[in-house]
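User: Fold this, then the next.

Assistant: Folding the first:
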Amino acid sequence: MNQASFNQSLLSFLDDSPTPFHAVVTMKQNLQSAGYQELNEQDEWVISEGGRYFVTRNDSSIIAFTAPSLDFAHQGFRMIGAHTDSPCLKLKPNAHVERFGHHQLGVEVYGGVLLHTWLDRDLSVAGRVTFKTKEGALKSRLIDFKDPIAVVPNLAIHLNRTVSAEGFKVNPQEEILPVLCGSDKDFDLDKWLTEQISRQHDDASVESILSFELSLYDVQKAAITGLHGDYICGARLDNLLSCYVGMQALLSSNDERPTLLICTDHEEVGSQSACGANGPFLEDVLRRLTPSPEQYTQTIQRSMLVSADNAHALHPNYASKHDQLHAPLINKGAVVKVNNNQRYATNSETTAVYKDLAQQAGFDVQTFVVRSDMACGSTIGPITSGEIGVATLDIGLPTFGMHSIRELAGSEDAFNLYQVLVKFSQCPELISK
């Protein structure tokens, strides 16, 4: 695989994954095509030497791993972690709003959304719907309308004369509701969802809609952009970019060392859920693979996690927002993220492991430290490290516009990180003790 084909597949992955549910489906399809076998948490697992497996939880988180041998206690895992969710607008349970001549959707802000970027965009709806069938069973199905069916119109400058000088603070209760159509048109939310389920799923005979988890998203496709194709521009780069890179690294691992990919939901709202990094999903899987507490601890202590989540690139229009000695540039290599207050889980040894692998591959490594007078964000790295005790490196690809409806990253960086993570998956020893 070369950089061009890698990036084209990345664009397709982004476009096919408007929600965490869809991202997991897309990853499942890629894993199954590569011979990975799906496990069910409700079943007894039989893991065979040389096997490749994956398991999902809540349809929105996934763990995949290789088992070249079953001696996990003496080999450990080379782990790559990312998250499937992105800041967005999600429909409220009673989502239909009719007011002032329009049908609208009531929405709740999910995560740290840059709200103004959602104005004047062509939006669609996707997610999971749970319903009762005509036979009396309860089922869930994913839907994606794909077409632009909603928009959040901006307020004309004539009605807000100070907006250019003072900025526009969007009220998330009153001013972010998307418009669907005029109120002279028929609109019934349950009927609308039922018809979409029937269009997408032949096996779904809907009696009544019971609940849903639906998100709005921008229908504009991801693209390679810039005068010389320097950038990848698209929605949900944070953090589907890392999910894709981790998945491709797993698929390219040579089965010499056990390798594990974990992509969890709900990072943008704290990861505190049954399928989030602050939940038991990863520990549950690892304990099923190690039959005794002794072997479990040995496995963890011989493992390392690379937590991959986007990093803030030095923005040429806002250079003062960075510590000038720790200001990553786009297309100049992945970024090791360091915070001595443990907002990132990086330490000197995990940094050394990555730098050594990157140097072997011929790539530069950058470092990000937030300005000392600014608050630092966090990732699944400290959460996972704190939950199971695994040595962890926080790393990311430099990005502009993080949490915008459309973000910007380098067209070289993702492929370069992928190559280093392939070497990481094959690394026989981490730090000599």
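Now the next one, as you asked:
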Amino acid sequence: MMKSKGNKSNKFNLWLLAWPIFIEQFLQFLLGSVDTLMVSRISDNAVAVVGFSNQLFNALTTLFATVASGAGIVIAQKIGSRQEEDARTVGIISFNVTAAIGLVLSVLLIAFPHPIAKMLQLPDELLPLADVYIPIVGGGMILIAAIAVLGTAIRNTGNTKGPMLIAVGMNVIHIVMNYGFIFGAYGFPQLGLTGVAISTVTSRLIATIVLFVLFLSTFQRKIKLSDFRIFDRRLFKEVLEIGWPLGVNSANWVFSQLAIFSFLAMLGSKELAARTYMNTLESFCFLLGFSLALAAQIQIAHLYGAGKTREAYRSAYKALAVGLPLVAVNASILVIFGKNVLSLFTQDADILTLCVTLLWMNLMLQPGKMVNMALGNSLNAIGDTRYTMKISLIFMWVVATGCSYVLGVTLGWGIIAIYSCMIADEYIRGVLSYVRWRGRKYLRMKEDEMQKEQEQCAAEVSLAL
């Protein structure tokens, strides 16, 4: 028994959780960069449409992020408190609800791609490409939903290696099929952006099947197909209590980014393409930092469930101490070599000039983003999700989005002003998250709860004697 407990505790070691997440994210970044490079061989307009569409899809994922994210935290907390059967039930419920939401979104994107693109201010010259790409990839929203909830559930049991290997396989398949469809290789027809869309959906379908098989065996008691009829209102309410602010928080970020993409579209297709290329490069800066922050969230939720509040408190600072220097170094590397890398994607001089300026601004952006990732995820892990939601509602929309429109579009200061507003938003929320974490509000509540339980147990023992 002692060995089993040790193995379970070891699964939730910060580094053991973080390194598979890092490898998964790093390889996805590399393969995503290759994907963008391949699409750029079609045209800069194709890149802009893919970037714009991905922002739309990310925005729509917030509709099921409430369940998926909340379920992940509850699963880790339940395992920490040794309520394995409840963790299993939460996993099943979250899959059913998330898949249903994904199916509805798939139908909507297949039926109305053109009106959606028009509503989001996509330039007219890009609409024909959007009419091709959005219904095919958007029609697979149910697959995105399934991948999100299955991967989250599995990771929060302490198994970060499984989703890593599956994600790597998915991206390799996607790149191989992309190459075939874009260049007519391996006997594939040369289908351009249509082929890219087909390869995206196909690779996600394969990943969903493999993740589902792994999910069936991820808890102590294996899940049977008949178990998917289970629904526990008490546990689902617990998921929603943690999850709905997470969903709103995620929606704030994604929809604010979508709004900013719309502002960039108003400025022109070059600004939109520049932001898309920068999204790819920026991912490099915070890969390990993001991995540490996500690992810290899993670890802290587990420690919080087990009542180890002091260890949970320190874990956030460990992730932050390692992550901040890493993102600073990575951002500096991009400043030095970024222009050479960008020249692989586009030869447009105007786009390159914009991107080089944004690389310097990225050096200021990333440390603030790292603080948000580490401390924001830590607050979420202990259930303090309403606080992160509130500061997101205020500052993402007032500073990042509202000021971006006023300064970037209305006053005509362009993409530089928009980036400046994004930087200000990250630092404001980072400082507020730090102050909240230092206050230990939810950790103290947990300690008081445990003390009352101990006193109650002592009283019952005393009466029995």
